[in-house]
Write a structure and sequence with these properties.
alpha+beta; 2 domains; elongated
């Protein structure tokens, strides 16, 4: 069955240089219907294609398949009762790396989590737990902000961040939050403009949902941009004043996991726009439309 499918895929690829646009539309549609699993075969065909027109068509089909797959998965994810942050970050990475498997990044995160777990216990205060998290993430594993190329789109893909130990405030904040929550430490993302920080909640007074009353249950904030530095409300006020931004309630309280992944996608739109890659920027705009 698999062999016959491969033969069919190769036959369809051979038709991509047909000058008849109707033939191309039919071939393209049939290839897209086969889904994300055929992308490695399409990429191999792209590498060996001698015709620029065929390469361009293959690129177009690959992008359409990737976008369609991720839009479908993100739509399913959003509609879950409690969308998981790690899963959302994985689907965004999958949009760029179609061959990426969830266990690959899960194992990397589990390794970091174990290192934190070995150093942590219930007798530690909230500040002491953050100190351990900061040491393991930023000293032992050497995660840091990619200051030399902060707007690189790659900074938004969790597998790239895990591999290179470089990211931006949002991706590092996602990683920090995922590991903390896996250890039962109540750290959640705060959608602060022009930065992204984390709120450490009182573990004995965690609300079911985040609203205006949530702030009274926040012990302090953590800044991934500055190696996990601990902040108070006064530092956020000062930051907003520096940035000439009007303070809003949602700048101080945790946001939803959907909001965090939206922020990640917005980063990608901005990064690809900045680099002049309008086609990729528009692909992520399509994804944003699914999330709104």
């Amino acid at each position: 069955m698999i062999e016959s499918q491969n033969i069919e895929i190769k036959a369809l690829i051979r038709l991509l240089d047909d000058p008849d646009s109707m033939v191309f539309d039919t071939v393209s549609s049939n290839l897209q219907k086969k889904g994300i699993d055929i992308i490695p075969e399409l990429e191999r065909a792209w590498e060996t294609a001698l015709n620029e027109k065929v390469q361009s068509r293959l690129e177009n089909i690959i992008q359409r398949i990737q976008t369609g797959y991720v839009k479908e998965k993100i739509a399913e994810w959003i509609n879950r009762e409690k969308p998981d942050l790690f899963e959302g970050a994985y689907y965004i990475a999958k949009s760029k790396y179609p061959e990426l498997k969830f266990p690959e990044i899960e194992n990397s995160i589990e390794d970091i989590k174990k290192d934190v777990w070995l150093e942590i216990n219930e007798n530690l205060t909230a500040l002491e737990k953050v100190k351990v998290l900061n040491h393991i993430l930023f000293k032992t594993h050497k995660f840091s902000i990619n200051r030399s190329n902060l707007n690189d789109p790659q900074n938004n893909f969790i597998n790239y961040v895990l591999q290179t130990r470089k990211g931006n405030p949002v991706s590092l904040g996602i990683l920090y939050s995922i590991i903390a929550q896996k250890l039962g430490i109540p750290v959640y993302g705060v959608n602060l403009p022009r930065n992204f920080i984390l709120a450490y909640m009182d573990e004995y007074k965690q609300p079911e949902t985040f609203d205006e009353k949530t702030e009274q249950h926040i012990l302090f904030y953590v800044n991934p941009f500055n190696m996990g530095a601990v902040l108070g409300r006064r530092e956020i006020d000062f930051f907003l004043k520096q940035q000439k931004l009007e303070p809003k309630k949602n700048f101080y309280i945790p946001c939803s996991n959907v909001d965090i992944i939206q922020r990640l996608v917005l980063n990608l739109v901005f990064a690809y726009d900045q680099s002049g890659n309008k086609a990729k920027a528009n692909r992520y705009r399509e994804l944003l439309n699914v999330m709104r």
